[in-house]
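INTERNAL AUDIT FORM
Audit reference: QA-55
Scope: verify that the stored structure record matches its stored sequence.
Auditor: D.O.
Record contents follow.
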Amino acid sequence: MKILTKLKENKFLAFVILSYIATFIFKSDVGLLGLSNSIYYFKELLSIMPVVLVLTALFDLWMPKDTIVKNLGKNSGFKGTVFSFMLGSLSAGPIYAAFPIGVMLLKKGASIRNVVIILSSWAVIKVPMLVNEVKFLGPQFMVVRWILTVLSVIILASIAAKIVRDEDIVLEEEVQQKGVSINESACMGCSMCSRGYPELFEFEKKKAHVKVMDISKVDKQKLKKAINECPTHAIKYLEV
Protein backbone atom coordinates (compact mmCIF):
# COMPACT_ATOMS: atom_id res chain seq x y z
CA MET A 1 0.00 0.00 0.00
CA LYS A 2 2.88 2.36 0.79
CA ILE A 3 4.29 1.77 -2.68
CA LEU A 4 0.95 2.61 -4.30
CA THR A 5 0.69 5.77 -2.20
CA LYS A 6 4.17 6.86 -3.25
CA LEU A 7 3.35 6.18 -6.90
CA LYS A 8 0.18 8.28 -6.65
CA GLU A 9 2.17 11.13 -5.10
CA ASN A 10 4.81 10.91 -7.87
CA LYS A 11 2.74 10.25 -10.99
CA PHE A 12 5.35 11.46 -13.45
CA LEU A 13 8.06 9.27 -11.90
CA ALA A 14 5.66 6.32 -11.97
CA PHE A 15 4.95 6.97 -15.66
CA VAL A 16 8.69 7.03 -16.43
CA ILE A 17 9.28 3.76 -14.54
CA LEU A 18 6.37 2.04 -16.32
CA SER A 19 7.66 3.31 -19.66
CA TYR A 20 11.07 1.80 -18.96
CA ILE A 21 9.49 -1.52 -17.96
CA ALA A 22 7.33 -1.60 -21.10
CA THR A 23 10.33 -0.75 -23.29
CA PHE A 24 12.43 -3.51 -21.73
CA ILE A 25 9.62 -6.02 -22.33
CA PHE A 26 8.96 -5.15 -25.97
CA LYS A 27 12.30 -3.63 -27.08
CA SER A 28 15.05 -4.69 -24.70
CA ASP A 29 17.87 -3.15 -26.79
CA VAL A 30 16.11 0.23 -26.84
CA GLY A 31 15.45 -0.07 -23.11
CA LEU A 32 19.13 -0.72 -22.39
CA LEU A 33 20.16 2.24 -24.53
CA GLY A 34 17.63 4.48 -22.78
CA LEU A 35 18.80 3.33 -19.34
CA SER A 36 22.43 3.94 -20.30
CA ASN A 37 21.64 7.48 -21.49
CA SER A 38 19.60 8.17 -18.37
CA ILE A 39 22.48 7.08 -16.10
CA TYR A 40 24.87 9.30 -18.07
CA TYR A 41 22.69 12.39 -17.70
CA PHE A 42 21.98 11.62 -14.05
CA LYS A 43 25.73 11.51 -13.35
CA GLU A 44 26.12 14.80 -15.20
CA LEU A 45 23.33 16.29 -13.11
CA LEU A 46 24.99 15.16 -9.86
CA SER A 47 28.33 16.64 -10.92
CA ILE A 48 26.94 20.03 -11.99
CA MET A 49 23.98 20.93 -9.79
CA PRO A 50 25.76 21.08 -6.37
CA VAL A 51 28.21 23.63 -7.79
CA VAL A 52 25.39 25.60 -9.42
CA LEU A 53 23.36 25.69 -6.20
CA VAL A 54 26.35 26.89 -4.15
CA LEU A 55 27.21 29.61 -6.68
CA THR A 56 23.56 30.66 -6.86
CA ALA A 57 23.36 30.91 -3.07
CA LEU A 58 26.54 33.00 -2.96
CA PHE A 59 25.32 35.23 -5.79
CA ASP A 60 22.01 35.63 -3.96
CA LEU A 61 23.78 36.73 -0.79
CA TRP A 62 26.38 39.00 -2.34
CA MET A 63 24.41 40.70 -5.14
CA PRO A 64 22.30 43.60 -3.81
CA LYS A 65 18.63 43.53 -4.77
CA ASP A 66 18.81 47.16 -5.95
CA THR A 67 21.46 46.19 -8.52
CA ILE A 68 19.26 43.43 -9.96
CA VAL A 69 16.19 45.71 -10.08
CA LYS A 70 18.19 48.49 -11.76
CA ASN A 71 19.81 46.30 -14.44
CA LEU A 72 17.27 43.48 -14.95
CA GLY A 73 14.01 44.83 -13.51
CA LYS A 74 10.85 45.90 -15.32
CA ASN A 75 12.17 49.42 -15.90
CA SER A 76 15.64 48.40 -17.08
CA GLY A 77 14.61 48.87 -20.72
CA PHE A 78 17.11 48.25 -23.52
CA LYS A 79 19.96 47.96 -20.99
CA GLY A 80 18.16 45.09 -19.26
CA THR A 81 17.65 43.30 -22.58
CA VAL A 82 21.36 43.59 -23.43
CA PHE A 83 22.45 42.41 -19.96
CA SER A 84 20.02 39.48 -20.16
CA PHE A 85 21.39 38.33 -23.52
CA MET A 86 24.96 38.71 -22.23
CA LEU A 87 24.26 36.76 -19.03
CA GLY A 88 22.63 33.91 -20.93
CA SER A 89 25.10 33.84 -23.84
CA LEU A 90 28.24 33.86 -21.68
CA SER A 91 26.99 31.07 -19.43
CA ALA A 92 28.33 27.55 -19.18
CA GLY A 93 26.65 24.23 -18.50
CA PRO A 94 23.33 22.67 -19.52
CA ILE A 95 20.06 24.60 -19.49
CA TYR A 96 18.76 22.95 -16.30
CA ALA A 97 21.61 24.68 -14.45
CA ALA A 98 19.98 28.01 -15.33
CA PHE A 99 16.70 27.38 -13.50
CA PRO A 100 17.99 28.00 -9.93
CA ILE A 101 19.59 31.22 -11.19
CA GLY A 102 16.31 32.23 -12.82
CA VAL A 103 14.44 31.71 -9.53
CA MET A 104 17.01 33.72 -7.62
CA LEU A 105 16.82 36.60 -10.13
CA LEU A 106 13.02 36.68 -9.92
CA LYS A 107 13.23 36.83 -6.11
CA LYS A 108 15.69 39.73 -6.40
CA GLY A 109 13.39 41.74 -8.67
CA ALA A 110 14.31 40.76 -12.24
CA SER A 111 11.43 40.98 -14.70
CA ILE A 112 9.81 37.89 -16.20
CA ARG A 113 10.74 39.17 -19.67
CA ASN A 114 14.45 39.39 -18.86
CA VAL A 115 14.51 36.00 -17.12
CA VAL A 116 12.91 34.42 -20.22
CA ILE A 117 15.62 36.07 -22.34
CA ILE A 118 18.35 34.71 -20.05
CA LEU A 119 16.96 31.16 -20.12
CA SER A 120 16.43 31.25 -23.90
CA SER A 121 19.90 32.65 -24.55
CA TRP A 122 21.40 30.02 -22.26
CA ALA A 123 19.67 27.33 -24.30
CA VAL A 124 20.24 28.45 -27.90
CA ILE A 125 22.85 31.21 -28.32
CA LYS A 126 25.66 30.44 -25.90
CA VAL A 127 29.07 31.57 -27.13
CA PRO A 128 30.67 28.06 -27.03
CA MET A 129 27.77 26.75 -29.11
CA LEU A 130 28.17 29.57 -31.66
CA VAL A 131 31.84 28.70 -32.08
CA ASN A 132 30.98 25.10 -32.89
CA GLU A 133 28.20 26.29 -35.21
CA VAL A 134 30.70 28.35 -37.21
CA LYS A 135 33.05 25.37 -37.37
CA PHE A 136 30.48 22.90 -38.73
CA LEU A 137 27.94 25.10 -40.59
CA GLY A 138 29.89 28.21 -41.51
CA PRO A 139 29.81 31.86 -40.33
CA GLN A 140 27.02 32.97 -42.67
CA PHE A 141 24.65 30.32 -41.36
CA MET A 142 25.55 31.18 -37.76
CA VAL A 143 24.98 34.94 -38.21
CA VAL A 144 21.61 34.54 -39.94
CA ARG A 145 20.45 31.95 -37.42
CA TRP A 146 21.68 34.12 -34.51
CA ILE A 147 19.81 37.22 -35.73
CA LEU A 148 16.57 35.29 -36.28
CA THR A 149 16.92 33.56 -32.91
CA VAL A 150 17.52 36.84 -31.04
CA LEU A 151 14.45 38.41 -32.67
CA SER A 152 12.37 35.34 -31.81
CA VAL A 153 13.57 35.34 -28.20
CA ILE A 154 12.65 39.03 -27.78
CA ILE A 155 9.17 38.42 -29.21
CA LEU A 156 8.55 35.31 -27.11
CA ALA A 157 9.87 37.01 -23.94
CA SER A 158 7.55 39.97 -24.50
CA ILE A 159 4.57 37.64 -25.03
CA ALA A 160 5.48 35.64 -21.90
CA ALA A 161 5.68 38.84 -19.85
CA LYS A 162 2.16 39.76 -21.00
CA ILE A 163 0.67 36.33 -20.25
CA VAL A 164 2.53 35.36 -17.06
CA ARG A 165 1.99 37.68 -14.12
CA ASP A 166 4.28 38.01 -11.10
CA GLU A 167 1.65 36.49 -8.82
CA ASP A 168 1.46 33.40 -11.07
CA ILE A 169 5.01 32.45 -10.09
CA VAL A 170 5.32 30.79 -6.69
CA LEU A 171 8.65 31.68 -5.08
CA GLU A 172 9.91 30.34 -1.80
CA GLU A 173 10.29 33.26 0.55
CA GLU A 174 12.45 33.33 3.65
CA VAL A 175 10.38 33.20 6.82
CA GLN A 176 11.56 35.76 9.35
CA GLN A 177 10.90 33.73 12.48
CA LYS A 178 12.09 34.60 15.94
CA GLY A 179 15.03 32.65 17.27
CA VAL A 180 17.62 30.77 15.25
CA SER A 181 16.79 29.70 11.69
CA ILE A 182 18.64 28.34 8.67
CA ASN A 183 17.96 29.20 5.05
CA GLU A 184 18.13 25.67 3.63
CA SER A 185 18.35 26.88 0.04
CA ALA A 186 21.54 28.77 0.96
CA CYS A 187 23.04 26.01 3.15
CA MET A 188 25.84 24.27 1.25
CA GLY A 189 26.15 21.35 3.68
CA CYS A 190 29.62 22.11 5.05
CA SER A 191 28.48 21.03 8.58
CA MET A 192 30.69 23.66 10.25
CA CYS A 193 27.83 24.84 12.47
CA SER A 194 26.91 21.35 13.68
CA ARG A 195 30.55 20.61 14.48
CA GLY A 196 31.12 23.94 16.22
CA TYR A 197 27.83 24.02 18.14
CA PRO A 198 26.37 20.46 18.19
CA GLU A 199 24.02 21.31 21.06
CA LEU A 200 22.07 23.68 18.77
CA PHE A 201 22.70 22.46 15.21
CA GLU A 202 22.40 19.02 13.66
CA PHE A 203 23.35 17.76 10.21
CA GLU A 204 20.88 15.55 8.33
CA LYS A 205 20.42 14.77 4.64
CA LYS A 206 23.34 17.04 3.72
CA LYS A 207 21.69 20.09 5.32
CA ALA A 208 22.04 21.79 8.70
CA HIS A 209 18.99 22.04 10.95
CA VAL A 210 18.23 23.81 14.22
CA LYS A 211 17.45 21.48 17.10
CA VAL A 212 14.38 22.11 19.23
CA MET A 213 15.89 24.04 22.09
CA ASP A 214 14.97 26.66 24.68
CA ILE A 215 16.22 29.84 22.99
CA SER A 216 16.96 31.42 26.37
CA LYS A 217 19.64 28.78 26.97
CA VAL A 218 21.50 29.47 23.73
CA ASP A 219 25.18 30.26 24.13
CA LYS A 220 25.38 33.64 22.35
CA GLN A 221 29.15 33.42 21.84
CA LYS A 222 28.95 30.00 20.17
CA LEU A 223 25.99 31.13 18.07
CA LYS A 224 27.78 34.29 16.94
CA LYS A 225 30.82 32.23 15.96
CA ALA A 226 28.63 29.79 13.97
CA ILE A 227 26.91 32.69 12.18
CA ASN A 228 30.23 34.33 11.28
CA GLU A 229 31.84 31.07 10.12
CA CYS A 230 28.94 30.02 7.88
CA PRO A 231 30.40 30.45 4.33
CA THR A 232 27.00 31.28 2.78
CA HIS A 233 25.58 33.27 5.72
CA ALA A 234 22.63 30.88 5.90
CA ILE A 235 22.18 31.15 9.68
CA LYS A 236 19.91 33.90 10.96
CA TYR A 237 19.14 34.99 14.52
CA LEU A 238 16.22 37.22 15.41
CA GLU A 239 15.92 38.32 19.01
CA VAL A 240 12.89 36.92 20.81
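Auditor finding: record pair retrieved intact. Residues 28-62 form the longest helix (35 residues).
Action required: none
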